[in-house]
Design goal:
about 240 residues, mainly alpha, about 40% helix, elongated
């Protein structure tokens, strides 16, 4: 039956698709409108349109007000209405952009082509999402995306030389700071024993930090090694005896 007049009609036409979801819709010849709305979106027949260039500024304001004040509050809560909210917000942004274009006297036609397949011009035999033509278009787009990804993977990013990498530079700066702090760059005559002539530099204190288990806190290092690392502690006493 026809969506608008409920009269008996069972012939689909490739041009009669819902302007919201692009679903083929049964509309008789006497109810043939410029843009069609299916049964699920018939409530948007006065405010949701694809081609906005045929409306005056006052009509666009009315459409925007109807969507924001009547339809959006109905789907404002609930996860199952997420896609509906997204669709309505997109339409609101589209109407606002059209209002700005009209204010700037830059009003162009929004009809980019067939609402079924997006082609311009279209021979009318595409039949929306259920056609092989649209499947071919989607497959071609998917193949293009795959080609782009493959090309991006093969393109090597410019890499700095080993000594110019940031990690190497940071390590070099830390090493220089440590050498300066511990006095390791002093000449050989420093810290030399006048009686024996042997150089005896002062001991260096270095703090090494690492992650540890909570149960290790407060325990001695020897006890932790003996309890946790059994494969090391077989001959551990012998190793300690001989240094």
């Amino acid at each position: 039956r026809c969506v608008y007049c409920a009269g008996p009609y069972d012939i689909f036409h490739p041009k009669n698709v819902c302007t919201v979801c692009r679903e083929p819709t049964l509309v008789c010849t006497s109810c043939n409108y410029d843009e069609i709305h299916c049964r699920n979106h018939i409530q948007y027949k006065t405010c949701y349109f694809t081609d906005l260039s045929r409306f005056r500024k006052e009509e666009l304001v009315t459409q925007l007000h109807e969507i924001e004040e009547i339809h959006l509050p109905k789907v404002s809560i609930g996860r199952k209405f997420k896609q509906q909210r997204k669709t309505l917000h997109k339409q609101c942004n589209k109407i606002r952009a059209k209002l700005v274009a009209k204010n700037n006297n830059d009003d162009n036609n929004d009809d980019a082509g067939c609402r079924n397949c997006g082609a311009n011009p279209c021979d009318g035999a595409c039949w929306g999402f259920h056609s092989l033509k649209r499947k071919k278009i989607l497959d071609d787009n998917e193949n293009e995306e795959k080609k782009k990804k493959v090309l991006q993977q093969h393109i090597k990013k410019p890499r700095a030389r080993r000594n110019q990498r940031q990690s190497k530079q940071d390590l070099r700066e830390r090493s220089l700071l440590e050498i300066k702090t511990l006095g390791l760059a002093q000449p050989a005559k420093c810290h030399r024993d006048p009686t024996t002539g042997i150089r005896v530099p002062p001991p260096c204190v270095r703090i090494l930090r690492t992650n540890a288990k909570g149960k290790w806190c407060g325990q001695s290092l020897l006890k932790v090694i003996k309890e946790e690392f059994m494969n090391v502690t077989k001959d551990f006493d012998t190793i300690l005896k001989y240094g």
